[in-house]
Amino acid sequence: MFSRILGFGKRPFDSLSEQEMLALAISSEEDDGRIYRAYADGLRDRYPQSAKVFEEMAAEEDRHRAALVERYRARFGDRILLIRREHVSGYYQRKADWLVRPLGIEKVRAQADLMEDQARRFYIEAAKRTADAQTRKLLGDLAAAEQAHQTLAHRLGLKHVPEDVAKQEVADERWQFILTYVQPGLAGLMDGSVSTLAPIFAAAFATGDTRQTFLVGLSASVGAGISMGFTEAAHDDGRLSGRGSPVKRGLASGIMTALGGLGHALPYLIPHFATATAIAVGVVFVELWAIAFIQNRYMETPFLRAALQVVLGGSLVLAAGILIGNG
Predict the structure, then answer these.
(1) Global pTM exceeds 0.85
(2) Is 259 within a domain?
(3) Residue 85: which of 22, 25, 168 has the closest Cα?
(4) I need a surface site. Which of 79, 114, 189, 303 has the fewest CB within 10 A?
(5) What average pLDDT score do residues 211-218 get?
(6) Is the pLDDT of residue 160 over 60?
């Protein structure tokens, strides 16, 4: 599990040869074509015209794949290397179709917009790394085609969800903010708040010593923050995924992880054990409800589901720590 998180066993994008990049582009176009067809199926009942647009976009991805296959065969023969996006460190990932259901036109438009932007970035970077003139031209043409698709996705959204240019710019800026700061920060806050509950409260009830408990909480929080920060920064450089600077994402994740643990460790600076513990428990529930609110506000997770997952899960971890400490 940790090797997947940190990207161990994956090839860095910069190490790919021209042959490997073409093979990766072929498999990526195949995946995108399937995703667009799934979007078309999901939209057909409510938005039949929009479904036709996504079918056309899927057909266009098929044409891109055919052009890439033809170029690959001309350069390297008939045997296409098996290389997919999950084999490459820092390469953009695709969200499974079932993760974006129900398929509202606004949600699908935003996802398609992101997909085309990531594909365009990939072709631009791939074109820089090939010296073959015809391959370079093909990759440049595909980057331009993906840009045209991205514009089409914008028009599709404007047709069904009317908004002026200023609102679109605000929406784009908000999305980038979520990708760069909210997503990694939320993951860090959840990890720091929940993962440190058991060791802090186990230490508290096992020792009854507020100073020792604070030291355990401090070390667990800082250690988790450093680990999460480096993990976030290392597994995706943001160049192809469009998620922004890895340093900013790493800082957001690391700082929020540390804060999530320190929130219920700091009360143990109070020398009176019962008072410190009561305040720490209160802080825990404030943290858990804050996480549920952020998930609902920025990640569009239904509030009741977020509350059930976070608050119930955190409460169980808290209870486990107390039971272990009293054991």
Answers:
(1) no
(2) yes
(3) 25
(4) 79
(5) 88
(6) no
The number of domains in the chain is 2
Last residue of a domain, one of 162, 194, 229: 162
Instruction: Write phi, then psi, for 300 (nearest 5 degrees).
Output: 60, 30
Name the packing angle between helices 183-195 and 313-326 (round to 10°). 30
Residue labelled with tokens 């079918």: 55
Measured in whole angstroms, the distance separating CA 236 from the mean position of its chain's CA atoms is 10
Are 157 and 184 found together in one domain? no
Domain assignment present for residue 169? The answer is no
Q: Is residue 255 part of a domain?
A: yes
Nearest C-alpha neighbor of 322 from the set 222, 200, 230: 200
Domain membership of residue 321 as a residue range: 180-326
Same domain for 142 and 255? no
Of 184, 187, 182, 189, the closest CA to residue 263 belongs to: 189
Q: How many residues does the chain have?
A: 327
Within a domain: residue 54? yes
Between 321 and 246, residue with greater pLDDT = 246
Q: Look at residues 252, 185, 240, 197 and name the one whose alpha carbon lies nearest to residue 221.
A: 197
- Residue-wise pLDDT tens digits, 83-132: 888 888 877 777 666 555 556 666 777 788 888 888 888 888 888 888 88
Tokens of 3: 């090797």
Assign 3-class secondary structure to 242-259: CCCCHHHHHHHHHHHHHH
Q: Hey, how many other C-beta atoms are within 10 angstroms of the C-beta on 134?
A: 11
Which tokens hold the place of 52?
């036709």
Distance CA 277, CA 97 (A): 44
DSSP string, 77-108: -S------GGGEET------GGGG-S--HHHH
Give the model's confidence band at 170: pLDDT under 50 very low, under 70 low, under 90 confident, else very high: low
Residue 185 has pLDDT above 50, yes or no: yes
Place of tokens 């953009």: 92
Q: Are residues 142 and 223 in the same domain?
A: no
Q: How many CA atoms, within 13 angstroms, populate the side-chain half-sphere of residue 294? A: 20
How far lies 57's CA from each of 64, 241, 291, in Å? 10, 20, 37
